[in-house]
Here is the input.
Amino acid sequence: MSKPPPTKKRSVPVFLLLPNLMTVMAICAGLTAIRFAYEGNYETSVRLILVACILDGLDGRLARLMKAESPIGAELDSLADFVNFGVAPVLILYSWTLHDFGGAGWIAVLTYAICCVLRLARFNVSNRLGAEGHSSDYFVGIPSPAGAVLVLLPMVVSFALSGAPVTSPVVTAIYVCIIGLLMISRIPTYSFKNVVVDQRNTKFVLLGTVLLVAALLTYLWTTLALLSVAYIGLVLWGLKTEYLSKKPRT
Here is the structure.
């Protein structure tokens, strides 16, 4: 009986693993955020979710830049998004205030998490089919990283207004469900991926970016709260646009 031919070993340059390594680091940040939340260190938890958002924004772009895209990387990125943006934020909120609402608070957690996984599944299928339902300048519904930041807005506001009372668990639960439903909605939300700037205005963009980073480093919670409110305004504008596009003309 002949032996099967030996499998050929494939060598992969270590630097090509960097995008996947960033994705794994993002998962570690999300899971560690849950740990700090249940230890009562909520500000660190939210900071780690923000780190996960940054890593999520960088790993895919780095993979495309290095031409290191792979099916495993795509699946790993999707799983990381569910952990970091579908599970970690609402578990942090559950530890913070939703547990005071009993079973209804847990239902809000489940609602948000299921909406997030449905949104990710729809996004993955749309990518494979090459159709999102709107132009490439828009997402369909709120993307999961934005949803994670928005759902933490009650905590961020309480950090910005130090000494302010914690938001009612009933209000927080309703807010969590609304953000979850917005993720699976058909509302077009601007993606910012194809933003172009006139060459003459690049200096203003650079200055604005520097000022924004400085504000985040100096007044993190206030700046993050204002950015979240501004994004909600964009979502409402998208809702108005969607409504007008379906409104029959007389």
Observations:
- The domain at 15-193+200-245 is CATH 1.20.120.1760 (Four Helix Bundle (Hemerythrin (Met), subunit A)).
- Strands lie at 138-140, 188-190.
